[in-house]
Design a protein that fits this description.
Elements: H1 2-16, H2 19-53, H3 73-79, H4 84-115, H5 121-130, H6 136-149, H7 156-160, H8 167-178, H9 182-190, H10 195-206, H11 208-223, H12 227-232, H13 241-249, H14 255-275, H15 277-285
Helix pairs in contact: 2-14, 3-14, 4-8, 4-11, 4-13, 8-11, 11-15, 13-14
Length: about 290
């Protein structure tokens, strides 16, 4: 009786088994559809910006609609505008120099906080991280007065130096370096390697994924930075692209011209992202691994 009763149940289980992969595929396709819709919603403003930028002058811009003919006259006008090339170069200098210095200092500080033992290490770390809770607007006026008294107004060093103390970058580097095996550093010390050599031959190669990720973030932060360059820059010699576009907007230009300037300013960000995309994927794949 027992064997007879169990056979139908076993057959029913075998018959119901193929339904599980079908449900899994349905969920996967539903997830893909949801992500596709979210991607289109995210790309919507960017696509609208491109359409308006390539629209002829005088074409209706609200609501956004596909123009009868595409033209590059707006982009040509922006590239030939007075100060646009200089603003772009200033933004590149501001962003690239900040990325190099922040990655260097943050990786060194992260290595010290993660692998070194010294008095007051934890207190110093959390005090440094606590500065993230202080809004930049609260320190804007004192910082401007200090930099101006030191002669840094309308200079590149006055534009760059106050933004180099990045507690978030230090924290990210410290968390990543803590996951590196201590045996690597012990072996290097046994071989007589100096601290600088340990940093350059062990820390830097093993932290390339997080350095690339952090480099993209820092570049975007500085490229899109507006408030501090607006306050400290007083002429086209140090004015960045974000501030310069605001100056163009005050000249009552057409929306097509403004959108073309925004499209051109987004090109360096896209280039940096696509060049470092492989490292971004590696950093995500290595998350949580030792």
């Amino acid at each position: 009786m027992t064997l007879t009763a169990t056979r139908p149940a076993a057959r029913a289980g075998r018959a119901a088994a193929p339904r599980r992969p079908a449900r899994g595929r349905a969920r996967k396709w539903a997830l893909y559809a949801l992500l596709s819709v979210m991607s289109l919603l995210t790309l919507g403003p960017f696509i609208a910006m491109i359409i308006v930028a390539l629209s002829p002058r005088g074409a209706p811009t609200v609501p956004v609609q596909w123009p009868d003919a595409l033209t590059f006259d707006n982009i040509t006008q922006i590239l030939g505008a007075s100060g646009f090339i200089e603003w772009t170069l200033n933004s590149l200098i501001y962003s690239v120099v900040s990325v190099v210095i922040i990655l260097l200092t943050a990786s060194m500080a992260g290595y010290a906080f993660a692998k070194k033992r010294f008095p007051g290490r934890d207190a110093m770390l959390w005090t440094f991280i606590a500065t993230m809770m202080v809004p930049f607007q609260a320190t804007l006026i004192p910082l401007y007065v200090l930099v101006s008294d030191l002669g840094g107004a309308d200079t590149f060093w006055g534009l760059i130096v106050p933004t180099l103390a990045n507690s978030q970058a230090v924290f990210l580097m410290r968390q990543f370096i803590m996951g590196l095996p201590d045996e690597l550093f012990d072996a290097a010390k046994v071989d007589g390697a100096s601290e600088l050599r340990v940093y350059w031959t062990i820390v830097v190669p093993l932290t390339k994924p997080i350095l690339a990720t952090l480099g993209v973030f820092v570049f975007l932060w500085h490229w899109n930075d507006f408030l501090w360059p607006l306050v400290i820059s007083q002429s086209d010699a140090t004015r960045t692209l974000t501030v310069g576009l605001t100056v163009l907007k005050t000249e009552e230009l057409q929306w097509a011209t403004l959108m073309s300037s925004a499209a051109v300013s987004a090109v360096p960000c896209l280039v940096v992202f696509f060049l470092l995309q492989r490292y971004l994927v590696n950093s995500i794949a290595m998350t949580g691994l030792k």
